[in-house]
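Field guide to reading this record: the first block holds the primary sequence, the second block holds the structure written as discrete tokens, and the final block holds curator observations. Each block starts with its own label. This record concerns VWA domain-containing protein, catalogued under organism Oscillibacter valericigenes.

BLOCK 1 — SEQUENCE
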Amino acid sequence: MMELQRGQKISVQTVCRSWTLEVELRHEGPLTVDVSCFGLDGAGRLSDERYFLFYNQRRTPDGAMVLAEGPSAGTARFQIDLAALPDQIQRLSFTAAVDGSRTLRELTRGSIRLLARGEEAVRYAYTGGEFQGERAIVAGELYRKNGDWKFSAVGRGFNGGLRALVESFGGVVADPAPPPPPSRPAPAPPRQGHAGGAAPSVGEILRALPPRVCARMEDLARRSQGDLEFLAPLYKSAFGALARFPQAAERELSAVLCADASGSMFDFYRSGHVQQIFDKLFALSSALTDRGDMDCWAFAAKSRQLDPVTLDNIRDYTFAQSGGYERWMSMLNYQYNNEPEAMRDVMMIYGGQHRPVLVLFLTDGRLQSDWEIEEILVKTSRFPVFWQFIGFYGEEYGVLNHLEEIDGRHTRNAAFLKLEEYDAFSDSRFYEDLLTHVSAWLQELKEKQML
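BLOCK 2 — STRUCTURE
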């Protein structure tokens, strides 16, 4: 029997020697768990709901998958003939959802196993200590790869329950769903009285910043009207923060947003909270460059560059651009987040630039690999690239909480800002916290003649 770790993958033929097998999910603890299997197409969508097995639908039309009770309490088994599945079914995602208001943290232990001819071939185990407020988990997946079937130990939690799982795969639940969010939620009002003191006057801003930056700000402020009026208070706060840290405006600074689009972020995208953080970051980024835009990447297991964020698309960027966040999650394999791969992809594009680059890296934690992130930060410290990590309603931030302890860096090229109380951060304080670290880094680049 082979014991897998989270994220590990194995060929089904290697361990089972057959396309006919059983997948068993077992959960122990003081809670009721409902298991399901989603038969997904090549885009990761539940395009045919007949291939969604759960307590109320236990067999596919062709009999290729059957859900049955397991041999003991808390277990369920899926009997599967991979060879009999239609070609459009490219992936089988095995999930568990907690019934009621309880969470997976109360789970004593859980596991997903592959059995061939009744004998255990592969096991991936997990415990409640690996979770916080999640109420559902994608335990593992079977997927087609170059004519083979592979098994992946996923172990990715969801804040929502079964409904969130169904909707994340593109399905529809039978009972009424809550109304959809507005195309662009109203931003929280800025709070006054932060540590930076009174906001600088227009005259103070104009005296503090170079003429070209002032002209840029005037143009952005003029264009923030009508449908873009929500940007006006953000620009006011961004300009005031730049006046306090004029070093950040001495030369053009390219800004790149790299946003977590893994499954645990689904509710934050749907509620509009991620759109709000896009608004804030775009207002600052567009004030830092003459182009007036912000490059954008999304990542989960994979990463991809999206269309730049501009004044023309910012209003509903996360809901509409490049298919919207649900499409991003689908094409990037939302089951887990792979920060190191996203960081390497970003460096492939921006590492060779001679002007400074600010990477705004948005994540909700539970990082894929602390040591890989640390290694990338050490290697990239000789490039004019600054990694501003932003924790968003998350947990288990690992190495991000200890960036100052990373030895071997040529420059202090990273900082971490955690947003646990989103509305408690005034726009001014948010921008000033970001610019504090960026300004110090730019001064370091100047002293070390890296610009």
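BLOCK 3 — OBSERVATIONS
DSSP finds twelve helices and 18 strands in the chain.
Confidence is low (pLDDT under 50) at residues 174-196.
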